[in-house]
Amino acid sequence: MGFTSPWHWLILILVIVVLFGSKRLPDAARGLGRSMRIFKSEIKEMGNDGGTDSAQQPPQSAPPQISAAPTTQDDQAQSGYTQQGNQQQQPDQRA
């Protein structure tokens, strides 16, 4: 049967009026209308902006690749690193 019966609609409208009150219903409907209008205008703007943005933006080039220079044991010794886990050596601070 569903909500196709006029009695179901009448009961539903009566419940809404009782819950929200007759003074707040016009304000709620007005706010809903404004929200729908803003939503529709934003959707139209997104559709218009989507086509023009891709034509105006130049294609992005790939970032330059940085190749890592091979390190030798001498380079690691000078920088204070050992081969075991690249742990930094602490200088002996005994006086």
Automatic annotation (TrEMBL):
The scientific name of the source species is Lolliginicoccus lacisalsi
Q: How does it assemble?
A: The Tat system comprises two distinct complexes: a TatABC complex, containing multiple copies of TatA, TatB and TatC subunits, and a separate TatA complex, containing only TatA subunits. Substrates initially bind to the TatABC complex, which probably triggers association of the separate TatA complex to form the active translocon.
Q: Does the keyword S-adenosyl-L-methionine apply?
A: no
- Annotated GO CC locations: TAT protein transport complex
This chain's protein is named Sec-independent protein translocase protein TatA
Please report the record's description of how this protein sits within the membrane.
Single-pass membrane protein
Q: Biased composition, Low complexity: where in the chain? A: 54-95
Query: Where is the protein found, in the record's own terms?
Result: Cell membrane
Q: Which InterPro entries match?
A: TatA/B/E, TatA/E
Instruction: Give the Gene3D superfamilies listed for this entry.
Output: 1.20.5.3310
Q: Where is this region: Disordered?
A: 43-95
The text of the family note is: Belongs to the TatA/E family.
Function of the protein: Part of the twin-arginine translocation (Tat) system that transports large folded proteins containing a characteristic twin-arginine motif in their signal peptide across membranes. TatA could form the protein-conducting channel of the Tat system.
Biological process per Gene Ontology, one example term: protein transport by the Tat complex
- Which stretches are transmembrane? 6-22
Its keywords, alphabetically, are: Cell membrane, Membrane, Protein transport, Translocation, Transmembrane, Transmembrane helix, Transport
